[in-house]
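Risk mitigation, structural track. In case the binding assays with zinc ion fail to produce interpretable data, a predicted complex structure has been prepared as a fallback.
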Amino acid sequence: MELHFTGRGAMLNPSEGNTAAYFEDDQNFFLIDCGEDVASKLIEMGKLNQDKNYYLFITHTHGDHIGSIGTLIQYLYYVKGHRLNIVFGPNMTYAENILGILELMGVTSETYNIVNTRMLENRSPLFNKISYTESNHGMTPLKSCGLTIDTPEGNILYTGDIADPRIITNFFSANFPDTIDKIYVDTSLNESPVHMSLETLKRIIPIGLRHKVYCMHINHPDLITEIPKWGFNLVDSSTLNLLSRDINTLNEDELRTLENELKNRLSEVEKLQENNNQKKLTKQINHEIQKRAYDQQS
Ligand SMILES: [Zn+2]
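Fallback model:
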């Protein structure tokens, strides 16, 4: 199973957007984290206008992972009539903090549901079960979790933000290489007290497994060229982020996507302008006809 990203940036690399991932089937939409820009992007992409069950997982309560939860809940409830299902798990020692944040935001409890990871078992053809695994975000005072997703193609690890690689090494111990589907991991260019560095990834991930590793939450544009050099993948940037990125950091594929996006938008603008001009012209003609009819009468 592949995760899709609304953004792949770290908090201090905002041109790449907040890192948040989603996956969906015909009936359900699952979202991992909802930083400050995530709800508005999902609305712009039309993802919140579907008649589906919406589920949200939160890896920890930094603003770039939970900042738009209020907008997400209230848009779904007041505009679409859906209650967001916030998924809690037994290892989530920060669940109370999420409820506290919602209370401070003035989000009332009838606008969302709290569901348990166990209630999601066999809910979707995409996965058998999803669990939270406690992780370590280093020098921050926050508790954090990663997610493991048991899918028909193998197990997926989504680290969230980590400073300690144990969640990855434990995942390796619990799985044979062929039972691993993908590993999504936050990646910093240099050593960091709160994030996983590219150096550490090179040290702990065997070369034969690197094609299953997808770097996300990147903190520096140099990672765009550095990550593939060492055999790792970089998650795709959403088209919405390409519009705000420094054009010099875009690779050939991204430049082509941006060019197509801009051409599409330009043709939409031209169509709108043409419609507006047509309407103006019709209005002028009608006005002129009425004026002449009036002149003839008088
Ligand atoms: Zn964080």
